[in-house]
Amino acid sequence: MKLLHKAFLGFMFFVLFAACTDRISLHRHRFLSISQTRDIPVSIVVFSKEAPVWDKVEDFVMDRSSLYDHRVDESPIGWLNHHGQAELAPDIWKVLKTALDVAKETHGAFDPTILPLVNLWDYKTMGELPSQEQIVEALKLVDYRQVDMKPSGMVYLPKNMTLDLGGIAKGAVVDNLADDFLRQGYTDFLIEAGGDILISGTKANEEKWSVAVRHPRKTQLLVGVLYVGEAGKKQAVVTSGDYERFVMRDGIRYHHLLDTKTGQPARGGCVSVTVIAPDCTLADALSTAAFVMGPEKGLAYLEQKTNVEGLIILEKPDGELEPRLTSGFPLKLGDIKL
Amino acid sequence: MKKRISLKLFDFFSFGLALFVLLFSIIINFSGSGSDLTLLVKTREADYVYDLKENRELVFEGPLGDTVIEIKDKMLRVLRSPCPEQICVNSGWISHQGQWLGCLPNQVFLSLEGKVENEVDAYSY
Amino acid sequence: MKLMPTVTETGRLISILIGLSLVLSTLEMMIPKPVPFFRLGLSNLPLVLSLRLLKTRDIFILALAKVFLQAMLYGTLFSYIFVFSFSGTLLSVCLMVLALRLFKNNISFIGISLLGALAFNSAQLFAAYFILLGKSVFLVAPFFYLAGIVSSVILGYVVERFYRESQWLRLLEAQGFGQEVP
After folding, report:
1. Helix (H, G, I), strand (E, B), or coil: what is residue A203?
2. Average pLDDT, whole number, for chain A?
3. Is the pTM of this model over 0.95?
4. CA–CA separation, C18 and B63 (whole Å)
5. Could you tell me which of A48, B23, B38, C1 has the fewest CB atoms within 10 Å of its CB?
6. Per-residue pLDDT tens for C135-147?
7. How far apart are CA B50 and CA A102, in angstroms?
8. Which residues contact C72 (CB under 8 A, 6 or more apart)?
9. Closest Cα to residue B78, out of B45, B53, B103?
10. How far is C69 from chain A (nearest CA, A)?
């Protein structure tokens, strides 16, 4: 396999130098999407005759990122949080709709109004853990049912409530870029932003894309490699895990995936949830939701969604890790190395 | 007018550098750290695969008798062989990817192969 | 006596060398390659020759003109191919100029051209490593270098012969070109 892979790359190399421009070749670009709040490494692979204009791609990604960022006051979400109402552009409205749909289906396991709680658990500035009073106070302002979306594009928020698309903004930006690529006529590409992956079509010669899922505890290991991709189809692979952002206090892991029922980091037993879905925004929301719901409910939820597959890695009380899969997941239980 | 071309001192320096670069580019393809290597053993009967992590002695049967190999500190050698020439025993240790030891009379062939690493298009985390 | 070529004469020589370079590269495109990677690099002949004829600044002008004009000619100006040829040419010219200034008459065009090829190939491999393929480029590196070494020695030999035997060069020398390595 590896030899084939290398031979293929070697061949690509030769094609690049020996032949010239009018063939489909591999174009790759990596950059850091810099925003006020978080720098996200982005990696893009495109199979096409002409490479995309990477400068424009970088600008696009950064523009879209600030659009979904509630911390940017002039962004639509920032405006909505300040004024309680705003008319959203159709694409942003759609992202919020996806978020609210998942929130409804999961009864708030994923909740875009979670901001007060997130601020309380800001793992970067956190000295003391938040007190129960603070949590109760914050939870009063967390309720996805209070968000009123009109088909016209108008969105209304009750006073003091705030929206945070942080959990799905990365996916939304990736989706936007993918749509932009498709509009420009690129059909076969892979976009990866901070671990969120969207693939479209296949590699050259209709070879499937290989996507590795990292081990949730031993970062240098891989849980397994997925082979995904089909001509003319998009697929997103997103993993949410408790290892991404967390603090350890007294041997307990306080991570960033918060449960709106308890106001605490979710303790359902999940360590990581990998979701395959038709788009990255949805995959983002679903992986977070399933994580918070816990292994049983989370897996059942993913199973009943169409065109969605999931892999949940849970931690048993004795500390041992165990994988659970939806029926159509492109790996077998035996393929998963933990 | 001078017509014969004679190479100058630093021409040879360039040739030396070229040779070095060429050899270096070849070597980096064949070097791998010992821990990632797999030992492939071919005998008359069958093929076997081992890793080099554990120090141990292994015995393989050939037409002349038993060939004993030793794995130690991620290196490998033939310890004892029933063959008359003893070339394999005298070859000493091997430890790098692509190196091999063979005992033709006893039909045991040992080679160190690179471990298959995962080269993937993207990582989900 | 020190004879200096005039500005017009220098300009004319640069233009001739650029033209020659483009003609040679077009010629080379027409010849089928015997082995993948293997290019004689004929279009670099004027560039190598210029090392002993022009001032450092003019050599770089020639090199840049060659890279850009070639890219325009083949429509590769806005593609990764341009990155490869640009970085490769620039690094190899730097190294060749440096080698010539350091070693003066203790090195022939063969050695110079060889050093240039090593720099050229190295720059291309690194560009490919970062832009396109990652680690896998090292797999083809030996073939790449070997092809570069063979073709550059041939090229160096041709330039050396040309430099010694060309009547045109004697004329140029009479105008003051390449009197001494600056």
Report:
1. coil
2. 87
3. no
4. 71
5. C1
6. 567 777 888 899 8
7. 49
8. none
9. B103
10. 17
- For residue B5, the chain C residues in CB contact (below 8 A) are 108, 110, 157, 160-161, 164
CA atoms within 13 A on the CB side of A279: 18
C122–B contact, CB cutoff 8 A: yes
C53, C97 in Cβ contact below 8 A?
no
Residue A43 phi/psi, 5-degree rounding, is -135, 130
ipTM confidence: 0.82
Task: Go through the domains of chain B in sequence order and give each one's CATH number.
Answer: 38-113 (2.60.320.10)
Q: Hey, how many other C-beta atoms are within 10 angstroms of the C-beta on A332? A: 9
Coil vs helix vs strand at B113: strand
Identify the residue whose tokens are 């759609």: A94
Contact between A299 and A290 under an 8 Å Cβ cutoff? The reply is yes
User: Would you say A54 and A30 are in contact if contact means Cβ atoms under 8 Å apart?
Assistant: no
Chains that touch A (3 or more CB pairs under 8 A): B, C
Give A-chain residues touching B116 at CB under 8 angstroms. 1-2
What is the pLDDT at residue C117? Answer: 94
Contact C136 A13 (CB under 8 A): yes
Question: Which of B117, B121, B123 is nearest residue A45 as measured by Cβ atoms?
Answer: B121
| SS3 assignment, position A39 | strand
**Helix, strand or coil for residue A80?**
helix
What domains, with CATH codes, occur in chain C? Answer: 7-174 (1.10.1760.20)
